[in-house]
Each structure stands twice: as C-alpha cells, then as structure tokens.
Write a structure and sequence with these properties.
Helix content is 31%, strand content 35%. The chain has 81 residues and is an alpha+beta fold. It has one domain. Strands 1-2 form a two-stranded antiparallel sheet.
C-alpha cells in the first residue's frame, strides 16, 4: 500500500498597478466578469463605481501613484509513494 505525499507552496506576487482605479481594472478582467456579464450594459458603470468606492480604502495609492496588489496562489503537488 502506498502513502501519498503532498507539498503545499503558498506564493504571493506583488503586482504594481497604474492608472485610475487599477485594482478595479484588474478585477474587471477576472473576478468581476460573471457579475458584469449578468448586468445590462447600462447598469455596469454604476456597479463599477460602487465597487471602486468599496475597494479604494483597501488599495491606497503609494507616493508615486502606483497601487500594490497582492496576488496569492497556492501550489499543491501530490505524489504517490
């Protein structure tokens, strides 16, 4: 009988974002897609503005105007021994 082995490797990548509400722009291409797709195009700007207001305190711009986004990933490797 074999014993499985697993290695867990959490990683955090810092992305330097630029522009107006860059954290929102980032999310619009990923996690916000299902929500935006469910809205009528005419309702999207209001939703995006509210989302930007909610995120702003959590992603303050640095002195140079950039925003740091911590992008976390968990890599798991399982092997059969």
């Amino acid at each position: 009988m074999s014993n499985p082995k697993s290695d867990w490797n959490p990683q955090q990548y810092l992305h330097v974002l630029r522009g107006k509400d860059p954290e929102v722009q980032w999310a619009m291409g990923t996690s916000l897609r299902p929500y935006l797709d469910a809205l009528r195009p005419s309702d999207q700007p209001e939703f995006i503005a509210a989302y930007a207001r909610a995120l702003a305190p959590h992603y303050p711009p640095r002195a140079d105007g950039t925003v740091l986004l911590a992008f976390r990933r968990l890599f798991i490797l399982a092997t059969k021994q």
